[in-house]
Fold:
Amino acid sequence: MIRRAARIASLVVAIAVVSARGIAADTRYPVTGMVLTVDRARHTFTASIDAIPGFMDAMAMPFTVQDDAELAALAPGAIVEFTLVVGTSASHAERVHVKRYENVEQDPLAARRLSLVTQIASGMLVNPVAAGAAVPDFTLIDQQRRRVTLSQFRGKVVAINFMYTTCQLPDYCLRMVNHFGVLQKRLASRLGRDLIFLTITFDPARDTPEVLTHYAAQWAPISASWHFLTGPEPDIRRVLGTFGVAAFPDEGLMDHSLHTIVIRRDGTLAANVEGNQYSSDQLADLLAAVLQ
Amino acid sequence: MSATGRLLAVAALGAAVWLARIDRTVVAQDAAPAITLRMIVVTTADAAQRVLGRLKAGENFAVVARNESTAPSAENGGWLGKLPLAQLRPEVRQALDGLTPGRFTGAIRIPTGFAIFKMEEDEPAAEAAPGVSAALASSGAVRYVYDVSGFTEARAAFASVSKPPDWNMEPSSICSTRNASIATTRASIEAYLAPANQAVRAARPPIDIMQLYFGLGQLDAYEGKMDAAVAHFEDAYQIAQASVPSGVLQLLEALGIAHLHKSTGDNGVYEAPGEYCLLPMRPGRAYAKTEDSQRAVEYFLRYLQQKPEDLEVRWLLNLAYMTLGQYPDKVPAPYVIPPSAFRSTEDVGRFRDVAAAAGLRNFSMAGGVAVEDLRHTGRLDIVTSSMDSCGPMKYFGNNGDGTFSDRTEAAGLANQLGGLNLVPGDYNNDGCQDLLLLRGGWEYLPQRKSLLRNNCNGTFTDVTVAAGLAVPTTTQTAVWTDIDNDGWLDLFVGNETGAAQLFHNKRDGTFEDIAASAGVNRSSFSKGVTAGDYDNDGYPDLYVSNYGEANFLYHNNHNSTFTEFAAVAGVPGTPTGFATWFFDYDNDGWEDLFVTSYVASIDEMVRDYLGKPHNATTARLYRNLHDGTFRDVTAEVGLDKVMMPMGSNFGDIDNDGWLDMYLGTGQPSYVAMAGAVLLHNKEGRAFVNVTASSGTGELHKGHGVAFADLDNDGDQDILFEVGGATRGDKHAMRVFENPGHGNDWIDLSLKGVKSNKAAVGARITVTVEDAAGHQRSIHRTVGATSSFGSAPLAQHVGLGRAAKNVDVEIWWPASNTRQQFTNVGKNTVLTIDELAKTFTASTPHAVTLGGARRTP
Structure:
């Protein structure tokens, strides 16, 4: 967490610099980032923001709001756009807007459409588990054929992403899984001790433990702390349903939506991040926030 | 290239899964340029600039890589080893262009971040780090065709509705279940979108409502109701404009393609294609009704104003202008795909579609085709199947006068519904080809096969259950071959989900699945299986073409077991395998292997047409090296082209004795109009594209292909089952009549005695002299054909011009005997029985396809 501390420190310096220059009028910057925590009592949220050109690097930092209504729609993992107002002695965020994930690339779009169509056809729109609610337990099999049960990691933070090994589009499965590959190094001191990665296939028919072993080798995963999971089709379907992940076979490939899940130490859902428009730094910051 | 380089070439194809399958002992033959590299990957552009600053300041690349790189190669100081350039993403290739050893590149955007490469001196002993190249692979960043057809929606509906027990055991219940699934799904969505449901709808985000209108339009498109599809796409478009601006562009394309599909349908072109939809369409052949084509042009132009670089929509725009008779003149200059892109460099004569004239009116979805003398009339009948769960097989009986009659009812096949492919084979050794109908391909829902016993009188009996073949699977591929040379044909079935099946023929009309004990029960998403004796040891071997995984080559151990040798033999195939076959393309007496690559990307195909570098994995041709291994000769024979092949097959279009090929193309989307391709074999040295000059470039979805001499005039015509994967994408079958080339030929009809009656696996060598006295040999195998297509058992052998001194040698598998006949004559049909000392010769009666009905 040295890096995180350093990043927050640099923010303080940045604002101090702005203040020292004695700029009289407020300066406004458009900002995008991922929400890490929301503290309504203190009228703040923390976010891992993208770089603000000419002002500051990408970093995690707290933002104060003047109107608590700004916090209403925020939850960890949400991608937000807002205006950062920097005054001479203080700053605050306003016009905080949750950027709904609307990836219109054909693959996720088709998956979400198929999910809607089939849910309506079967008479029910299923709601995935909500933030703060307990995540239903599940048991799957990992790349070494070990049974892995979610509840066995109680007391640790669990991050989950989804993929299938024959995925052809590098911006999807490969990119998602690679985030864990990057974080495996960055969070080496936490991984296994109080952080677990699970990567779950939505193509269990093809992705046997042996296939997953070869796929996982790309990132040399530490097997005790990063499990690549498969299992019987109905079990996989149930897990996908729990988190609102849509996946449908299409001519040998799969149309699927993109989700990254973070579960708290107490087994409740911290965040369900949809899409691929975030960086591994932002995911690291989100995990760090949940680990605290 | 080193063995290591070969390893990486395969690894770079995409899935790391492959690495494990590729044996490190493979001898590399490929001489493609390669480069030895180290790499640093960081996640942000800023970090990349910082790293570049340190490198420019003289820091050691390997040390920086170890400390900063997020790629797995960091552990090894960023070492990648020697990588074949062709397998890298184009932006990486471009950055490496001109780089010299010791120098490094700037930062390059790749899917996992920003990469910096350093070129190293070649080190022959260098070992590559496994799995390093997935993010660099050229095959990864492909724009797949945009799915506008409702194929996936209809299938998801089929998969998700509740079904009656044993729904998949009878063709009629498969049909009714599918119909019900579409009706139920449509009704549910309509109810959800109904005004009465406004309160519930209002709670959903606009993108979901947009999606539901689009979904309804997709179901309309599936059923071919293009007016309704256009209306629902317009509803979705309105919502996008108001609330989902990022979705507008895709809907412009969807509306354009819906109008183009509607235009083609409304003009009757799918049912009566004639000279229409032959790529490139001849100038001046405008559709009669032009309104929808004009709307399509408008939508595509609006799309291209926002995204002018989009090659898929450029392609569609050019096609839309063709239907208006305005290609290429009216196509705006920045978007035109020049006619030169389609030009054939060689003329093999123009084929002519005579299907309608000959009474071969088959208007159906994707399916298989079989051509055989099924009634012992001495003439070829034709059978087709359709993947439409409610679409029957069709039996066209040859009237002997160049016309055919629909005998489906009389043959007892009208209740055989569905089946993406069908495979003929004489399983009971009665001398009459039986039919195996395969269901479930691309459906993900196991369905029953049908084994249809030919009663030798043009009627068929469904014996599936009695034969022990009724277990439902998801399949479109199977091959009949006598694995143990006991004189009875066994059956190998590739499945898309679940293990392959090897049914051993028990000689009593029943089969036993011995796949597990034979060692051929691997599960993969298998799209093609074929059989051939690649090492000339007298026993048939098996090859499996898989989508998403490396292929399997099963060597026959002569004891009803097999050993998988694909990696050792150098025939891993492509990550997107589809149809496959053994054939001797270079006439050296050893079976070569062809395997298609189903990369469904108009974008990649157009790059190829325009001479730009492409990212797609192409088909593979493997030349037999006579030592149990093969060499990839794809590039040297000119087959490294993006063609989107589906059903395809081989034959000899000009009787020169060299096997040519015809590839049907496409994908379910109505966008996926790629154009079939005819490739002429230039004496085993090259395959030349003769599509345009031959008039065989059917634009629409190509499935079962068969080469057969339907009119007994001594040359092979091309039967082409055309049609897509949805009910709204049916198409008329094509029968391209061969214009003739004046070359000689001989037909060989073999009958097994100890070997299986159909003589499957018998090897034929025809030796012939040309006018100058130059002697050569031509090799054929009875029963050899494509996994997605078929051929008559009688072998048609082109002999070239002014052939003389024609000798025939036949090797029989079960008896392991050879027959030799000298000076057998030419332009005649020889009938030869196994073990016989003599043969009979006959001259078939040539007819005109279409007979009296033929218009000049």
